[in-house]
TrEMBL record:
Signal peptide: none
InterPro entries in alphabetical order: Hydroxyisourate_hydrolase, Thyroxine_BS, Transthyretin/HIU_hydrolase_d, Transthyretin/HIU_hydrolase_sf, Transthyretin_CS
Name assigned to this protein: 5-hydroxyisourate hydrolase
Record-listed E.C. numbers: 3.5.2.17
Gene3D superfamilies: Transthyretin/hydroxyisourate hydrolase domain
Taxonomic lineage: Bacteria, Pseudomonadati, Pseudomonadota, Gammaproteobacteria, Oceanospirillales
Top-level taxon in the UniProt lineage: Bacteria
Amino acid sequence: MGYLTTHVLDTAQGMPGQGIKIEVFRIKGSEREALKTVTTNDDGRCDSPILEGDEFTVGEYELVFHAGDYLRGQGFKADEPRFLDVIPLRFSVSNASEHYHVPLLVSPYSYSTYRGS
């Protein structure tokens, strides 16, 4: 059975992104269906899979990372509005029986992601 996980890494400080709020959406055409909101733990991960079982199906999803709140809390000085604040990552699941790991590597001025396992 497949499932979805994430991991946030603060590349500016070389540490996990702790306490970051992540909103989870399913995309159907032009509609966004809110599924849940999770928060990263001390290791920058969620305590359990974000989606699994019947919740995790073939289709398009969006993870919305509230990185600006985290960066403010870390004391990064930046002009307001910040260059990066809320980061949406939209991706597709083609095989819901696989593990989709969608990490976020973030700093005050850049981010990247990839599909891990």
